[in-house]
Input
Amino acid sequence: MVFDSDPLIVATRRGLYCPQGDFYIDPWRPVQTALITHGHGDHLRQGNARYILARPGLGIARARLPGNHDLLAVDYGTRHTLGSTTVSLHPAGHILGSAQIRIEHGGEVWVVSGDYKRQPDPTCEPFEPLRADVFVSEATFALPQYRWPPVGQVVQEILHWWRANRERGVASMLFCYALGKAQRLLAELAALTSEPVHVHGAMTTLIEVYRAAGVPMVATIPVPRPSRTQYRGELILAPPRARGFGAISSGFCSGWMCAADGPHRLSCDRGFVLSDHADWPDLVTTCEQTSARRIRLTHGHPDALIEHLGTRGIEARAL
Ligand SMILES: [Zn+2]
Ligand SMILES: [Zn+2]
Output
């Protein structure tokens, strides 16, 4: 096995670490300095002494970290010195405030993608292509079968499903993640309808964070206590494990719905393929666009991508 000499990022027990800058990226355990790519729970955790994150993600971090925390919000693209490195954050297009982390040291540039996507998303700044010597990419959906349909088509499918359910007199319950996906759906729907959408009580705080950040979304009505008949004909957004709305049609919004048995596996009636991650073609394109000769992959099962990039002369491996 070949190792990078003087790597700018190494995998440790606490998470990805930059020795030259003495900081961690999205650490799993408490550290002194944590650079945070975005606010999802597997990336933003409690207990770090100092957090550095992109300014548009500040409201999310405040909502998700109870108590007082040392949060340093930085603007996209602004260069900061950490140890002997120069660090900057750049839009990743994943959710509001999501960032790629660019690290420069001794003439070498590493970019850590965090979670990212290339599809348009009205709730956040689009992914910024960066050049890198080494690109550390997520690989959540790194199989050729994962190809996202156009967003507009998926949102139209959701709208048709909602209207058909209304004609049958049932509620439409759409399961999606409370951070990112819910707000993206509400923003996409705003372009097509002025009807309000009911939202599960667990989603309201983060929806308000997005509204405060100026993201235009349809009007929402919080649903604290679901009942069997009250929501006939309405659309309700709820986090994946919410239940108890009685006679409904249920849908699920996720990249995993690309698989034929997706709706069955997540026990719902309809699957809608909408993901905040890059699909296979976008993973390949993005890795190539960075011009990196070395790719390091995190998340998912990266073997197929490692092999595919290898055929294009790019040395890739799991980090
Ligand atoms: Zn994420
Ligand atoms: Zn993630």
Remarks:
- The pocket of zinc ion (ligand 1) is lined by residues 38, 40, 94, 115 (CB under 6 Å).
- The two ends are 12 Å apart (CA to CA).
- DSSP finds seven helices and 19 strands in the chain.
- The longest strand covers residues 85-91.
